[in-house]
Write a structure and sequence with these properties.
Blueprint lengths: L9 H23 L11 E10 L5 E13 L2 E11 L6 H24 L3
Antiparallel strand pairs: 1-2, 2-3
Helix pairs in contact: 1-2
Length: about 120
């Protein structure tokens, strides 16, 4: 966890932390071969589980990295990438956590900058 430096404002510290987290998110996305999520276009991302059935009755489980966003007045989802159950990398959960942390810090920074000085 980052420690505040003496003489630095809270907004500056949040900006530094935000920049580091975005770099980490971009690096992890590149390693997993998925769309770069560091542009923060989506409201949130989540890992969902889907079960598919073949006509023969066999079931297949897949994990999907989903992005949620608003298109006008409608809520939309986009599947960023999908994996079979045995191919799911552990870093996907870290990507989801990093994305949410970046969004929270970005909102906090925006609120902090809107405060009267």
């Amino acid at each position: 966890m980052a420690r505040a430096k003496v003489g630095g404002s809270a907004a500056e510290e949040l900006e530094r932390l935000l920049k580091r987290l975005k770099r980490s998110l971009k690096r992890l996305c590149r390693q997993e071969g998925i769309e770069d999520l560091s542009h923060l276009r989506y409201h949130t991302v989540a890992l969902s589980e889907a079960v598919y059935r073949s006509p023969g009755g066999k079931t297949y489980r897949r994990y999907q990295l989903k992005a949620y966003y608003a298109d006008g007045r409608r809520q939309r989802t986009k599947t960023v990438k999908s994996w079979r159950e045995d191919d799911l990398p552990q870093s996907v959960k870290r990507i989801v956590a990093l994305y949410r942390a970046v969004k929270h810090i970005q909102r906090a920074l925006k609120s902090l900058n809107e405060l009267p000085k």
